[in-house]
Design a protein that fits this description.
Oligomer: single chain
Helix content: 25-40%
Structural class: alpha/beta
Number of domains: 2
Distance between the termini: 20 Å
Strand content: 25-35%
CATH superfamily of the largest domain: P-loop containing nucleotide triphosphate hydrolases
Shape: elongated
CATH topology of the largest domain: Rossmann fold
CATH class of the largest domain: Alpha Beta
Order of helices and strands: EEEHEHEHHHEHEHEEHEHEEHEH
Largest sheet: 6 strands, mixed
């Protein structure tokens, strides 16, 4: 495991930052860490980076403490809302960070060209950062995170300031890193973006993990789609018991097991519903997220 936490807990006084977080990330895995604002995502990431000390529990990067300098050289980090020194050029900024990483001059020169080319900023390497658009600054911050050829990369909202083309380019970078065996720990509110690249996901709310697992498994067999004419009283009854989603001429019931379907169908038919179609469906990550955060019908953990 490149990252492994066991019952990681962090309190701020009496306030919970995160509690009993146990998860693992392997080489070449894209791991999405999701949750609403204030859920505990930043607390966990800062503890994983050694910026905060846990109240209890453990976290290891490459089997060692996050504070180990050799470990830190294997880690890249793109924080959310990063502020870059506007008086520097892109090349100057990368050279500064390269010196902090103790990169030899020959390798540093090569890496600067590689990461700026990869983020499509090579032609603007001599421009002051103050002349960059928000999207260009975001890509430059990603270049900084990639400079040391990390084996574990933390990305906090990496596409938030990018246009659709920029988001596609960042997705391509992330999938390229996966092919190279780099582990990517991804935090994003753009769930559709996460769904395109993530191998595994954990959803945190109020400091605790509410759902986790392989994304394909979490989204498979997550409910049923019912099309038909359903009396309002029956609809309201179902909505009180299950997390529901809208569908043309019907509705989706999330978190319904195969064993529950016959009883639901009997209830609908006896209640006067005209059912035209019933079939399982694969839920979107957004529906899984809402179900886990709202706590309806319990997401898989």
């Amino acid at each position: 495991m490149v990252l492994e936490s066991v019952d990681l807990t962090k309190y701020y006084g009496r306030e919970i930052g995160c509690r009993n977080i146990s998860l693992g990330v392997s080489s070449g895995e894209i791991f999405a860490f999701l949750g609403p604002n204030g859920a505990g995502k930043s607390t966990f990431v800062k503890t994983a980076l050694g910026l905060l000390k846990p109240t209890s529990g453990t976290i290891r990067l490459f089997g060692k403490s996050p504070e180990d300098l050799h470990v830190r050289r294997k880690v890249g980090y793109l924080p959310e809302n990063i502020r870059l020194p506007e008086w520097m050029t892109a090349e100057e900024l990368l050279r500064f960070h390269g010196k902090l990483l103790y990169l030899p001059e020959k390798k540093l020169k090569r890496r600067i060209e590689e990461v700026l080319t990869r983020t499509k900023l090579w032609e603007r390497k001599d421009s002051r950062i103050k002349t960059y658009s928000q999207g260009m600054r975001q890509r430059l911050a990603l270049a900084v995170a990639l400079l040391g050829e990390p084996e574990l990369l933390f990305l906090d909202e990496p596409t938030s300031a990018l246009d659709p083309v920029g988001r596609i380019e960042v997705r391509e970078i992330i999938t390229d890193l996966k092919r190279q065996g780099v582990a990517v720990f991804l935090n994003s509110h753009l769930l559709s973006e996460v769904e395109m690249v993530a191998d595994s996901v954990a959803i945190i709310n109020r400091g605790e993990i509410k759902a986790r697992g392989k994304l394909a498994e979490l989204l498979s067999g997550r409910g049923i789609l019912i099309r038909g004419e359903i009396p309002e009283a029956l609809l309201n009854k179902l909505k009180s018991r299950y997390q529901t989603g809208e569908a043309p001429n019907g509705l989706k019931l999330l978190g319904v097991s195969e064993e529950e379907v016959p009883a639901i169908m009997r209830e609908l038919v006896l209640g006067g519903a005209n059912i035209y179609e019933v079939r399982p469906f694969k839920a979107a990550l957004e529906e899984l997220f809402i179900q886990a955060v709202e706590g309806k019908n319990g997401a898989d953990n």
